[in-house]
Write a structure and sequence with these properties.
Elements (H helix, E strand, L loop, with lengths): L5 H12 L5 H8 L3 H13 L19 E9 L4 H13 L3 E6 L6 E7 L2 H12 L5 E8 L10
Length: 150
């Protein structure tokens, strides 16, 4: 990202926080003409720096009342075991993020469910029965004083 100049960096910062901002408003905030600003945004999109735009959803209004980070250790460190595990969590709607990490376990998941009972069901009857899983540790989110995804 060494070719991101200060103006592009400011464009990215603003769009990261306000993805639906009109080009005219964005141009004014970064000190460019609307056409120059639009060219820069289009170039950032073309280069894949801007991968897309998304809606930020309210978990509570969607029935999500329980959030946990879950570490998962596998019982086999083969590519086939990893791929099978990744396919399984890819199908689980409760898993909002899956990261292959370094350390004593292989995966870190962000899991969202309606409540503790729904999480327990998912933990026991979905994640817990996968043949690749050796260990599961759950960290319940008590609050999120900083969350730049929202």
């Amino acid at each position: 990202m060494s070719d991101i100049d200060p103006i592009n960096a400011r464009i990215l910062q603003i769009l990261g926080a306000e993805g639906r901002l009109a080009n005219l408003d964005l141009a004014e905030r970064v000190g460019l003409s609307p056409s120059a600003c639009l060219r820069r945004v289009q170039e950032l999109e073309r280069r894949g720096v801007i991968k897309g735009y998304r809606a930020i959803l309210d978990p509570g209004k969607m029935g999500i009342g329980f959030v946990a980070y879950v570490t998962v250790g596998l019982n086999s460190h083969t590519k086939a075991a990893q791929e099978a595990f990744e396919r399984a969590v890819g199908r689980a709607r409760e898993v909002r993020e899956c990261h292959n990490i370094t350390g004593t376990v292989e995966y870190l998941l962000r899991v969202e469910t309606a409540d503790l009972a729904a999480y327990k069901h998912w933990h026991t009857d979905v994640l817990g029965v996968l043949p690749q899983v050796q260990s599961i540790t759950t960290f319940v989110v008590m609050g999120s004083p900083k969350d730049e995804r929202s």
